[in-house]
Amino acid sequence: MYYSTIFIFILGLSYCSVKFNINRNTKTIFYILSILSLFITAGFRYETGGDWTSYTQIFEMIDPVDIVISGDSANFSSIPVEFGYKFLNSICKYICDNVQFLFFIVAGIITTFLCVSIPKYSPLPILSVLIYYGILFFSLDMIVIRQAIAVSIVFYSYRYIQSREKYKYLLCILFAILFHISALFLIPAYWICHKHYSSRKLTIAFLIFLLIYFLRIQWMTGTIQFALRIITGSDIFGKLTNYTTNGTFAVQRGFSLGMIIN
User: Fold this and answer.
1) Buried b (16+ CB within 10 A) or exposed e, 91-103
2) Tens of pLDDT along 162-171?
3) Are the C-beta atoms of 262 and 135 separated by less than 8 Å?
4) CA pair distance 9, 196, nearest whole angstrom
5) How many H-runs (helices) and E-runs (strands) does the chain carry?
6) How far is CA 178 from the centre of its chain?
7) Angle 199-204-210 (CA atoms, 0-180°, nearest 5)?
8) Whole-prediction pTM value?
9) Could you give the CA distance from residue 112 to residue 35 in angstroms, rounded to a whole number?
10) Is residue 133 within 8 Å of 167, Cβ to Cβ?
């Protein structure tokens, strides 16, 4: 019921901002309210979300940042998650030894990046928030929060592709990698997006990907494993290999409305 209410609330704000002749300041307030609704939902959740238990266990294992900096932490380096996320846990634990505080801070980071990014890319920001809530919010903000932080940073960094500021873009990607190693696959995006492609090449590429999708050709496993074996440690390599090969994490989909929406 709560999640439906939030959806209706954002939908109402989006409708009013488009349908009625309201001034720019009011639209900004509506937009901030829509973003705040996401922040409140993710930041104040309790025992909610698919990875709640695992992230709570990581937080309980992490030592506060003063112990980590002094070199007296016994298990900081052995926890198999990216350094940035571990360090964020360590800082939060130093301030408040309660995992709720961590989820509050993570929600704040994600929604802040979204808040400053969406209006730059979208002519209808509140509608974009509604789409994000309907498609991505529950899988990112409520489950895979490390990935969500990385995604929000990468989303913010697209402005530097548009403005052709290569080093700022790469700096953002490196920052995202600190929270999830998969962000490194976005490094080539700067050059890919600036290259012109003919309609013929785009059509051929699209047909090839459709062929891979419908015939379920497993071509990515070997490529990903080869790349990760070179650039990551054994713990992260093993985890990501498991995610990309274990059938438990796979959801088979045919041609459906869900595929079209995504």
Assistant:
1) bbbbeeeebeebb
2) 899 999 999 9
3) yes
4) 41
5) 15, 0
6) 13
7) 125
8) 0.81
9) 9
10) no
